[in-house]
Specification:
This protein is of the alpha/beta class. It contains six helices and ten strands; from the N terminus they run βββαβααβαββββαβα. The strands form three sheets. A six-stranded mixed β-sheet has the order 4-1-5-9-6-10, sandwiched between helices. The protein has a two-stranded antiparallel ribbon with strand order 2-3. It is globular and about 60 Å long.
């Protein structure tokens, strides 16, 4: 527990993935992605339970070896690529409360595809949730001005247009109000947010802005890039 809050970590890791087959157990500098989550969680005091939600026996085996529990297999109706984080986390929370006979106050989602996360990112996310009495806290990164929504374009039948018509008023990047994107390092969500509001982003959701470069892995290029960044960060530390 952390400040009397019982904490359940859920690592969602289904077997199906289109960009990289069995992406969640792809080696990252020799260590499977899902195993990196297990190793990191072991360094965070106060975590009451850490599980993987998967439909894959192979992912389950690797997860167990890393220290994550696999108390259930995800049902078939939660194994497709159109299943939301809300559905996966709600199922995991209800199932774990049934199996463990306890009530979990906070669910922390740690996706295997963010191997640049650090212990401090997870710890600070949980701490911010508790101290600020938020419904949820997400880690986010500031979006590069080149990728700002007001600089985005659409192409339909060869015709170019602004994604947002307000973009035609932008002359210099100094006119742009900073925007942020979720980076996948950590999500901390209260039980009431999941079950009562039925959302991973409640009415009051806090943002923990990370300055470090973060990459969420979807492709082999993402994997190679992230390994390069990780290695450079180690060299410069």
């Amino acid at each position: 527990m952390i400040k009397d809050q019982r904490i359940l970590v859920v690592c969602p890791a289904r077997g199906g993935s289109k960009g990289i087959p069995l992406k969640n157990i792809q080696p990252f500098l020799g260590v499977p992605l899902v195993a990196r989550v297990g190793h990191l969680v072991a360094e965070i005091p106060g975590i009451d339970r850490a599980i993987v939600s998967t439909d894959s026996k192979e992912i389950a085996r690797v997860a167990k070896e890393s220290g994550l529990d696999v108390p259930f297999f995800r049902p078939e109706n939660l194994s497709g690529d159109r299943i939301s984080d809300l559905e996966v986390l709600t199922h995991a929370l209800i199932e774990m409360e049934r199996l463990d006979g306890v009530t979990y106050d906070i669910v922390v989602m740690l996706q295997p595809t963010s191997p640049l996360r650090k212990v401090a990112h997870v710890r600070d996310t949980i701490q911010m949730l508790i101290d600020g009495d938020w419904d949820a806290v997400w880690t986010v990164s500031e979006t590069d001005s080149k990728n700002h929504p007001l600089k985005q374009l659409t192409v339909a039948h060869g015709r170019l247009d602004y994604y947002d018509q307000a973009g035609k008023q932008i002359i210099a990047r100094q006119q742009l109000v900073p925007v942020y994107h979720r980076n996948g390092a950590a999500y901390a969500i209260r039980r009431s947010c999941l079950l009562d509001q039925q959302s991973i982003k409640g009415e009051r959701t806090g943002a923990l802005v990370l300055k470090e470069l973060m990459v969420s892995i979807d492709t082999y290029w993402d994997l190679e890039l992230t390994e390069f960044i990780f290695t450079k960060q180690k060299e410069e530390a």
